[in-house]
Specification:
heterodimer; A: alpha/beta; Rossmann fold; 6-stranded mixed beta sheet; 17 helices; globular; B: mainly alpha; ABC transporter involved in vitamin B12 uptake, BtuC; two-stranded antiparallel ribbon; 4 strands; 2% strand; transmembrane transporter activity (chain B); transmembrane (chain B); transmembrane helix (chain B); cell membrane (chain B); membrane (chain B)
Chain lengths: 510, 328
């Protein structure tokens, strides 16, 4: 714990001029020592990711100074940071979708002759690293065909390839199952034992208690303090993170009567991008006022299932009915018109149009309707009002609604935008994929409240999540997906984390 | 769309051309002549198309190939006369093409320029520039005839009656080398990554802009060789609209190929051969009286439109194609 200070930030200030009212980072002091896991705790917009991006050379700082082993440094690019032994695993991955896993890692060979192709070495070293840290990968698959969890493992390997002294991980657990997260914590501890410094960004206090030595809390760009984890309580951390406000509680209320069947899926088969059968004969139904949770490690056909229901992907066999109406392989627009809404897995790629502004993104589903346009001309006044209302209601942090590209919003705020757009109209069926991935506690509670409200109003919700806690909290029934099949469905009362966990891992499935 | 599907379409095209060739041979045209003309017409298209595959993989669209063709044709002839060598002329065409490509690369990276507009600008500017250069250098409007010796001689291909230009071989070699470079070198990985996910190149400590400028310069170089080849390896003369839209045909070949250099070569051959067939029909007695001259001249362009219409939707663009990379 009292190891050498590897990296230190002193008085770091970051502002995006003219965009945000407060400083993104307001005179932050932060240091990482050899042999420790130092957690950065804070909500969305607290500045955790920005600080990490500054330490890893992605962003330049407005003022302040970074020291590596006591020496002042000026990072002009991520590589400057890497040369100084600082590697970062980003929340939004930096993997090339059209290349294979090994090719992506080979990209990191900067000093090699550009006309050489030492793929054999890279593969061997990758497999060695993957063995050493228990990061399972398939070296020759295309990255675009990997699930989020798999992509993260590749991303971590990519950074480990350089043997960094300091490893920064931005919200690494948000895409992992509980078991995977535990495995990751072991890996982080192992790295710390090797004398590396680990910076671990999260908004989950339990994880800090489980893995970190020290914790620094940020709130709205200000540092609330650095503590030894052994000397600080959960409640105090929570209070520092979200302020004096009590976290909102919501009524679980199981009193909703299920109504008619909203969604009926019969023997559905769907192919994945690389032509393999990803969904292999899935059947289920969801009623009015019911939340069906689909648990399972990502990459077991969940994405393909969600996309087939929302019309983004063709089903190769089987039937999908919405309120008795056959919607199998109908165009996505038509299905949406029938009241189906979708919170997609990859929010930046599928959830928003990044180069467009918030207002435009907000009406992207309904812009053709009379409310928002006449004869193809959009009514900007109405849209402004509409967007403002939703920004308010869903607490989206944005500099403005017409002039800023959605691209610059944080992941959490993009998710809020998507939630706002998909929920405001009160859909009949909501297909929600990792709906709270990367959101802070307040936003998660907020989202869950919206879900419960929808359920109360009689909507059906298909909740696909790797976050078991969320599944248990919300679902009326829980189905487990494994290798393209539903291996079991349990009512909320009979389901226990053990039972579901076993089913997810494919042992003792009922 | 997968490579083999594109290949199937290409085979279909070749089969159609083979049928036309058979008909023509019945009318007394020597097939060797057809292939020779086809290969000549293929060469500038293939060079430019292979180059364009490289720069588009890196994320830079160069729709200014037509402009590069026109400018480097003039520049090539100028230097050929200065050094009294067609070879040096074509090489200088390549150098100038590379320079133009590099400038376009700088504009579309550091300059954050819209690449479509930059390319359009290049095309439009070249129209005027070529006429100006013709006047400024040779003081004669619109056309320039240079000594016959400057035309790079053709080689006899062993075991055949074919006589082909060494630059045809260079075009084929370029397609093979480009495929190897893109698929089997670290540089190729960087180029592909720069076009698909520039952040990945950036975190590796490699300058995305440099990769893109290099790719753009390479693309420009090949287009420049193709441009100078037209007067110095093929026509033996220079006119102000010498490339006659071939720059756009090369772009169509790239779309057809889905950025695969070898497919781009095949597509260029099909377009080139179609042009050769059109040339031949125009002069073949018994056929030229039946089909109107202008209709035949139209064929390569019509083919371009049809191919673009079919393939533009099949194409998988690199994610960051045409977008400048901005880190923050």
């Amino acid at each position: 714990m009292s190891g050498e200070v590897l990296v230190e930030a002193r008085g770091v200030v970051k502002s995006f001029p003219g965009v945000w009212e407060h400083l993104i980072l307001d005179h932050i002091n932060f240091d990482v020592r050899a042999g420790e896991v130092h957690a950065l705790l804070g909500e969305n917009g607290a500045g955790k990711t920005v600080l990490a991006n500054i330490l890893s050379g992605f962003y330049t700082l407005t003022s302040g100074q970074i020291y590596v082993r006591g020496k002042p440094v000026h990072f002009k690019s991520p590589f400057d940071a890497i040369k100084n032994g600082i590697g970062m695993v980003h929340q939004e991955f930096t993997l090339v979708p059209s290349l294979t896993v090994v090719e992506n890692i080979a990209l990191m060979l900067r000093k090699h002759n550009p006309l050489s192709y030492p793929l054999k070495e890279v593969r061997e070293r990758t497999l060695e690293l993957s063995e050493r840290y228990g990061l399972k990968i398939e070296p020759d698959r295309l990255v675009e065909h990997l699930s989020l969890g798999e992509k993260q493992r590749v991303e971590i390997l990519k950074v480990l390839y350089w043997e960094p002294d300091v490893l920064i991980l931005d919200e690494p657990t948000s895409v992992l199952t509980i078991d995977e997260a535990r495995e990751l914590f072991k890996i982080l501890r192992r790295m710390a034992e090797e004398g590396k410094g680990v910076v671990f960004i999260t908004h989950r206090i339990e994880e800090i208690m489980a893995v970190a030595d020290r914790v620094t809390v940020l709130r709205l760009g200000r540092k609330m303090g650095t503590f030894k984890v052994s000397e600080v309580g959960k409640d105090e951390l929570l209070r520092l993170m979200i302020g004096e406000m009590e976290p909102v509680r919501y009524e679980r209320g199981r009193s909703v009567e299920w109504g008619r069947v909203v969604l009926e899926v019969r023997d559905l088969h769907v192919l994945s991008d690389d032509g393999r059968e990803a969904v292999k004969g899935v059947s289920f139904e969801i009623h009015e006022g019911e939340i069906l949770g689909i648990a399972g490690v990502s990459g077991n056909g969940q994405r393909e299932l969600a996309e087939a229901i929302t019309g983004l992907r063709k089903a190769s066999r089987g039937r999908i009915r919405l309120m008795g109406l056959d919607i199998t392989n109908k165009p996505a627009g038509e299905i949406a018109k029938l009241g189906v809404r979708h919170i997609p897995e990859e929010r930046r790629r599928m959830g928003v149009v990044e180069p467009m502004c918030l207002a435009e993104n907000m009406i992207i589903r309904e812009y053709k309707e009379k409310t928002f346009s006449t004869a193809g001309v959009i009514k900007s006044k109405v849209i402004t009002e509409h967007s403002k209302r939703l920004v308010e209601r869903f607490k989206i942090l944005t500099p403005d609604i017409w002039d800023t590209e959605v691209r610059i919003l944080s992941g959490g705020n993009i998710q809020r935008l998507i939630l706002a757009r998909e929920l405001w109209k009160g859909p009949k069926l909501l297909v929600a994929f990792h709906p709270t991935y990367g959101l802070d506690l307040k936003a998660v509670t907020h989202t869950h409240q919206h879900f419960m409200e929808l359920r109360q109003k009689g909507a059906a919700i298909l909740l696909i999540s790797e976050d078991l806690e969320e599944i248990f909290l919300l679902s009326d029934r829980i189905a487990v997906m494994l290798d393209g099949r539903i291996v079991g469905t349990l009512g909320a009362r009979e389901a226990t984390p053990e039972k579901i966990g076993h089913m997810m891992a494919g042992v003792g499935a009922s | 769309m997968r490579v083999w599907k594109r290949l199937l379409w290409a085979l279909l095209g070749i089969a159609a051309l083979a049928m036309v060739s058979y008909e023509l041979s019945q009318a007394g045209v020597r097939p060797v002549k057809l292939v020779e003309t086809g290969l000549l017409a293929m060469t500038p298209l293939a060079l430019a198309a292979v180059g364009e595959c490289i720069n588009e993989k890196a994320g830079v669209i160069n729709i200014g190939i037509e402009g590069i063709f026109l400018i480097t044709a003039v520049v090539g002839v100028y230097w050929a006369e200065v050094f009294n060598s067609g070879l040096i002329g074509i090489l200088m065409g390549g150098v100038f093409g590379g320079l133009i490509g590099a400038v376009l690369g700088v504009l579309s990276t550091y300059g954050k320029a819209d690449q479509i507009i930059a390319g359009m600008g290049l095309n439009v500017m070249s129209l005027g520039l070529v006429q100006y250069l013709l006047m400024a250098i040779w003081a004669f409007p619109g056309i320039h005839i240079f000594p016959r010796e400057l035309v790079v001689p053709r080689l006899s291909l062993p075991f055949t009656e074919l006589r082909i230009s060494p630059f045809t071989l260079i075009a084929v070699a370029a397609a093979v080398l480009a495929t190897l470079m893109l698929g089997r070198t670290l540089l190729g990985l960087r180029i592909r990554a720069a076009g698909d996910k520039p952040e990945a190149v950036d975190v590796a400590g490699i300058n995305v802009n440099h990769v893109r400028i290099l790719a753009s310069a390479l693309g420009g170089f090949l287009a420049g060789v193709g441009g100078a080849f037209m007067p110095l390896g093929w026509f033996g003369g220079l006119v102000k609209e010498i490339s006659a839209g071939r720059g756009f045909i090369a772009l169509a070949a790239v779309v057809f190929a889905g950025l695969n250099p070898l497919l781009a070569l095949i597509a260029s051959f099909i377009f080139g051969y179609a042009e050769g067939v059109a040339f031949t029909i125009v002069v073949t007695p018994g056929v030229k009286e039946v089909i109107p001259f202008h209709f035949i001249q139209m064929i390569p362009y019509l083919l371009t439109i049809i191919i673009l219409a079919i393939f533009v939707t099949f194409r998988r663009f690199p994610n960051a194609l045409g977008k400048p990379y901005i880190r923050e």
